[in-house]
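Quick review question:
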């Protein structure tokens, strides 16, 4: 299986400002592999019909001139061609698609594109040829023209081939702010509403998104972190167990013991003995 190699015809390097790239390529008979990449890829078949079968065990079919494949970012594919082919390949950067989603009022973290195989889509075909003509003429219409075509393509893909919305999660920055706040206030009575203010969400949204992001409810996460802090303090050995319980945020020593047995399966006394 060989990587799908490109033979550019008059192609320029990727535009560093908007990331669009378009090029012609010719593929040979045999197996091909498109590795997952950060860009969305659109392939327009421009040559005679080609007999193709997907791997593994995909149906054999014929790809005709004008048919289009859409491979979203992060998706790979393998196929076998019984005939050499001519295609126009367009790479659409993920940041541009995110921007298009925002312009459409969609959540860019959830909006996506469904893969398409051998479809007819005159709008994609027209945009692809327009970009190819602009590139072949050394971009006389400028960056705004190429940006407009790229944005139009991204909007069309999101509108016509939308992926089911992925479950929303906390952003990396939101999760970091919440967990850092918890660590800094473990010895206190941590409030869900204060965590919600830290994250910029409502309490109900934070509760749902925190569990989706970490796999555990926020109150269980707090207990787990308190247990880990209590364990570290007990192993340090310079505080009595009653003070460790308070410093770790437990209401009393027996509360710490119950939580420690539940989370770690051991008692505070066994942790103290393990220091010896």
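Suggested answer, residue by residue:
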């Amino acid at each position: 299986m060989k990587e799908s190699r490109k033979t550019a015809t008059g192609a320029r390097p990727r535009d560093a400002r908007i990331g669009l790239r378009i090029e012609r390529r010719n593929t040979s008979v045999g197996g091909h592999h498109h590795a997952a990449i950060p860009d969305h890829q659109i392939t327009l078949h421009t040559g005679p019909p080609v007999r193709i079968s997907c791997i593994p065990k995909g149906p054999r079919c014929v790809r005709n001139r004008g048919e289009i494949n859409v491979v979203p970012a992060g998706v790979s594919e393998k196929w076998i061609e019984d005939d050499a082919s001519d295609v126009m390949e367009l790479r659409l950067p993920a940041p541009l698609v995110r921007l298009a989603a925002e312009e459409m009022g969609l959540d860019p973290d959830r909006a996506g594109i469904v893969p398409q195989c051998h479809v007819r889509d005159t709008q994609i075909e027209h945009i692809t040829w327009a970009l190819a003509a602009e590139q072949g003429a050394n971009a006389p219409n400028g960056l705004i023209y190429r940006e407009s075509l790229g944005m139009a393509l991204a909007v069309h893909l999101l509108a016509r081939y939308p992926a089911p919305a992925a479950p929303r999660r906390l952003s990396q920055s939101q999760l970091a702010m919440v967990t850092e706040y918890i660590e800094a206030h473990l010895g206190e009575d941590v409030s869900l509403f204060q965590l919600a203010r830290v994250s910029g969400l409502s309490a109900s949204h934070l509760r749902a998104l925190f569990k989706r992001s970490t796999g555990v409810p926020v109150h269980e996460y707090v207990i787990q972190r308190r247990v880990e802090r209590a364990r570290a303090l007990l192993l340090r050995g310079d505080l009595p167990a009653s003070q460790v319980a308070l410093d770790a945020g437990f209401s009393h020593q027996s509360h710490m013991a119950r939580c420690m047995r539940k989370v770690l399966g051991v008692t505070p006394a066994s942790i103290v003995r393990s220091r010896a």
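Why it works: The first strand starts at residue 2 and ends at 3. Residues 2-160 form a domain with the Jelly Rolls fold (CATH 2.60.120.10).
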